[in-house]
Amino acid sequence: MKQKHFIDFHKGINSIFILLLMYYFDSWNNIVAWIYLALHGTYGYMWILKSKIFPDRQWESKTSIRYGLFIWLGLSLYWISPYIIISGNSILPFSIPMYPIYIFFCLTIYIFGVFLHFTSDMQKYIQLKYNPSNLIDNGMFKSLRNTNYLGELLIYLGFSLLALDWTPIIALMIFIIFIWIPNMYKKDTSLSKYSEFKKYKSKTKRFIPFLW
Questions:
Q1: Is residue 85 in a domain?
Q2: % pLDDT > 90, the chain
Q3: Secondary structure (H, E, C), 102-167
Q4: Residues 6+ apart with CB under 8 A from 109
Q5: How many domains does the chain contain in total?
Q6: Residues spanned by the domain of 66
Q7: pLDDT per position as a tens digit, 150-171
Q8: Taking residues 119-125, what's their average pLDDT?
């Protein structure tokens, strides 16, 4: 089996898991739970469509059942947020002043994240397919070398911040530190084979606009 089979299946059952939590905790009147379901649920289905229409090469490699289950376990850390929201175990009350504006902020960064992530992945797929063996240094990658990861960061921040708890943020940081950043350095090493990469690298940031 390929890595993407485990990833796609996990993302595909996000909405089912969230609905089961809502059933278990009898949380049908929790508006934040429904908002979370809309965000994380649709993201999971969009990921599956992306995997079929413009797949990412790094997830096409074959893997063992053991490693596939390890991937599953890691992705399950993202289920901390819905558990906190639906179980009511947040460190802050959901009725805090300005919370509607806070929800607006979470929705906004999620929407920008979806745009950055899926648009950059689509550009990468098309250019690698129709213009292979060339450095991708335009469009979504003109100023940032890992726009897709920035998009994912905004997407998952939108999920995690809704929980009003530090635990989901810590889980997200684990992914960033131990998976995303090493992949970014690995990508830079791979792109260094292009003669123009040194100049491109000097004009761009790795992950965070204007900072790093």
A1: yes
A2: 77
A3: HHHHHHHHHHHHHHHHHHHHHHHHHHHHHCCCCCCCCHHHCCECCHHHHHHHHHHHHHHHCCCCHH
A4: 154, 157, 158, 161
A5: 1
A6: 3-202
A7: 999 999 999 899 998 999 999 9
A8: 96
DSSP 61: S
Provide the residue count of the chain: 212
Residue type, 122: M
Assigned domain for 36 exists = yes
Q: What is the DSSP secondary-structure string of 191-208?
A: HTTSTTHHHHHHTSBSSS
Distance of CA 11 to the CA centre of its chain: 11
Tokens (6 digits) for 198: 């040194």
Residue 22 to residues 18, 29, 30, 74, 197, Cα–Cα distance (Å): 6, 9, 9, 22, 49
Q: Round the CA-based radius of gyration of the chain to a whole number and report it.
A: 18
Asked whether residue 207 is domain-assigned, the answer is no
* 103: its two tokens: 């929800």
Q: How many CB atoms lie within 10 A of CB 53?
A: 9
Cβ count within 10 A of residue 165 = 19
Q: How many CB atoms lie within 10 A of CB 75?
A: 16
